[in-house]
Specification:
- This protein has one domain: TIM Barrel, CATH 3.20.20.70.
- The protein is built from eleven helices and eight strands.
- It has an eight-stranded parallel β-sheet with strand order 7-6-5-4-3-2-1-8.
Length: 286
């Protein structure tokens, strides 16, 4: 049973914090291999300041050389302002633009040097641009399950933001935990309210986690109805903008093992996935 599972392979999140620059040709070759695997979406890069994220300064060149001629996988890039969005929407290859919002004002300032009011203005501008150009805006709500900055966070606050985004016509929202503070209880609490309460919105889960507690968190989201998961092969990466220790992403292999244990098909080509697993070392040792 496929059960409508969607997996986004977040290559961008996996490599953005690596200190050594990965040659552009290696990124292109790696993503082209990923495209043969059958992921619903691949997050390939971002149009942000190369000063902030130098690893992703070649996103436009990478995008130009990706071969989508024989894949149904969709491509996503992260944008944090209108300037980046204007570049992204002009590529026919891109399906999704993601925006890194945050339920924590402190992290919003750290991550994209913004505040809630300014971020909402940018979201409006980017969403309108997406609609005009046939793209989809996916809003990520970071710190949805708590934060280490002592900003108030609870389900009421997250639901209020979802109401605002729904009012703007946004239909793709991902709850994000980039510091590993979520618990099975608050994961269940949020998704059990959001998924039946907002039937026109597709909710996803972006999880940074340690190896010892990924299972209970994924299980909580799944049992509450979430069917859209972000992950990274080998669990690479983390958010370098938190000012806290990097916590790796949910490992794609762990997610696939979880689904297999549930008797649910993930829809990926296992031979192609194994090949990409063997190639991940090209990114790590570069």
């Amino acid at each position: 049973m496929l059960n409508n599972i969607k997996i986004t392979e977040c290559t961008r999140d996996g490599i953005q914090g690596l200190k050594n620059f990965i040659p552009t040709n290696i990124k292109i070759s790696y993503i082209n291999s990923l495209l043969k695997t059958g992921f619903d979406t691949i997050d390939i890069g971002s149009f942000v300041s190369p000063v902030l994220i130098p690893q992703l300064r070649d996103t436009e060149e990478v995008l130009d050389n990706i071969d989508i001629s024989s894949t149904n996988t969709r491509l996503m890039v992260l944008v944090a302002n209108l300037k980046g969005a204007e570049i992204a929407v002009h590529s026919e290859k891109i399906d999704y633009l993601s925006f890194p919002f945050s339920a924590s004002p402190s992290f919003l300032k750290l991550n994209i040097n913004s505040n809630p009011e300014k971020a909402l203005t940018n979201i409006d501008l980017i969403h309108n641009l997406c609609v005009k150009n046939g793209k989809i805006l996916k809003v990520y709500i970071a710190m949805a399950f708590g934060n280490p900055y002592h900003d108030e966070c609870n389900s009421r606050i997250v639901l209020e933001w979802v109401d605002i985004f729904k009012g703007k016509g946004i239909k793709n929202i991902v709850l994000s935990d980039v510091t590993g503070v979520s618990t099975p209880e608050n994961i269940t609490d949020l998704y059990s309210q959001l998924i039946p309460g907002y039937t026109g919105i597709e909710f996803g889960f972006h999880l940074h986690t340690r190896k010892e507690n990924w299972f209970e968190k994924v299980d909580s989201a799944f049992e509450a109805g979430c069917r859209n998961f972000d992950s990274v092969i080998k669990g690479m990466g983390g958010c370098p903008m938190t000012n806290y220790e990097l916590i790796g992403n949910l490992d794609t292999s762990d997610l696939l093992a979880y689904l297999k244990g549930k008797g649910i098909s993930h829809g990926l080509d296992e031979e192609s996935f194994s090949f990409v697993l063997s190639r991940t070392k090209d990114l790590i040792i570069t």
